[in-house]
Each structure stands twice: as C-alpha cells, then as structure tokens.
C-alpha cells in the first residue's frame, strides 16, 4: 500500500493497482529509439503482477501506531513482507515461468539493493529478521534457477543475473516499477531512474522533469506515443488516524475509486 498526501487528502494506491500501471508502461514501451524486449507477454505480465502478493495484506493491513494509518510500504518489516512476496512469486510462477522468474528477482532485489543496481533506504534488521531475509534470498536463488531453465529451455551454469536476456528484462521491470512510484509516491517530482538498460548490455539514465500536476517529461522518451496518459487507480481518504484495521477498511470501502491521469511526454 502506497500512501501520500495529495489535494488535502490521503492518497491510497494499492500495490496491485501500482502493478497494473507498471504493466501498462511495459505494454507501450518501445519506439524508434527505444528497443523492444522479449519474451513480450510474460515480461508485461511480470510488470502487472510483480506486487500482487500484497493483496492479502491490504485486505487487513496492520496499523502503524505512530500514525494510526496502515504501515507505509517502505516501513513494513520482513516478517510481514517476506510472506507476501512468497505468495506473489508463487502465483506469478504458476502463471508463467518467465513471469515468475522476474517477480522472484524483484522480490529478492528489495533486500539486495536490486542486485546492486540501486541503493535502497538503509535496512536495519534484527538478528531474526536477517535470518529470515537470508533464508528468503537463498530460497529464491534456487527457485530462479529452476524457473529460468524452464523458461529458456536450457540448463544454466551460472546465476540468472548473468544471462543477458534475463538481466535486461529484470532491469526494465525495475524502471517500470520506479516510474510508477514516481507518480504514486513522489507525485511526479523531478528525478532520475537508472540503470536504463539496453539490449547490448550498456545502460543510461531516464531523466524525469515535472511538467504539471502528475505530468512529466521523460528523456530519453521510451513510449510508443507522446503525450500518453497512464491511468492509476487510487482512493482519497481523510488524512486522519484510524487506529484499527476495521476503521480503516470501513473508510476505504466507502471511498470511490479516483483515476489519476499520469501523463508522460517528450521534452520540448
């Protein structure tokens, strides 16, 4: 669950809705200067499904006592977070092995700075949390190997991150994930997303400039049309303490869905 203050209210974006927008980015990715990716449909599905494990938690979220609101996605502990990702990874793998591979890498990457490509907020774990995280990473490394061999139709003798196709599509998933966060959490602020991968193994940076409310320019521009609107389903709730899951869920159930029109365009 992604929470932010917006238009005097509390903006609530469910993780599966963030995933739908990420998959929409994938669906429209590519133009005369931005290369395509393969396998197309499983990678798009990974964009859509990469955070679906959160759905069960969002049905009855735990409450942060310091705010009286659900825990912000960045602050959830591994004891709650790891089971969510295990569930989502299993569901994605049941859909398609390549989709499951990328979702597994995404979940593991949240605990290893996205495989060393992007420094996340400093994570301080208790000994029991570190044990759980290490177990999760080891388990997923083995699962990724199995999924990759099924998806690629050949045996791998090194970790999946050394396969150029897998690595390229994993990095694309991280770009789509972070671009959606740029709208849902950062409200289209200026920024950069990197590495922006290329099929030849090189990479660049996606530069973001605010161009109005929930509107940005992107350089280099990666989508098939400009301007393009990528809708994001959200809800606007009173920004107040709720204290219990029941009070939160009752307010959430009454809130209509607000479709945010997140707009991207080429720089002038």
In short:
The chain is an alpha+beta fold and 268 residues long. It contains nine helices and nine strands.
Describe this structure in words.
By secondary structure, this protein is an alpha+beta fold. It has one domain. The chain contains 9 helices and 9 strands. Strand 1 and strand 2 form a beta hairpin. The model has no long low-confidence stretch (mean pLDDT 96).
Task: Give a quick set of tags describing it.
alpha+beta; 9 strands; two-stranded antiparallel sheet; 9 helices; 268 residues; seven-stranded mixed sheet; 45% helix
Give the secondary structure arrangement, pairings included:
Layout: E1 2-6, E2 9-13, H1 15-27, H2 40-49, H3 55-59, E3 63-64, E4 69-70, H4 78-95, H5 97-109, H6 113-116, H7 127-152, H8 164-184, E5 191-197, E6 203-210, E7 215-219, E8 228-237, H9 245-254, E9 258-265
Parallel strand pairs: 7-9
Antiparallel strand pairs: 1-2, 2-8, 3-4, 5-6, 6-7, 8-9
Helix pairs in contact: 1-2, 1-8, 2-5, 4-5, 4-7, 5-7
The structure class reads alpha+beta
**Rg from alpha-carbon coordinates:** 18 Å
Number of domains: 1
**Low-confidence parts, pLDDT < 50 over ≥5 residues?**
none
Overall helicity: 40-55%
Shape, per Cα inertia axes: globular
Enumerate the strands of the largest sheet in spatial order, edge to edge or round the barrel: 1-2-8-9-7-6-5
Mean pLDDT: 96
Q: How far apart are the first and last residues' alpha carbons, in Å?
A: 34 Å
Report the major sheet. 7 strands, mixed
Q: How large is the count of helical segments?
A: 9
How large is the share of residues in beta strands? 15-25%
* Elements, N to C (H/E): EEHHHEEHHHHHEEEEHE
Number of strands: 9
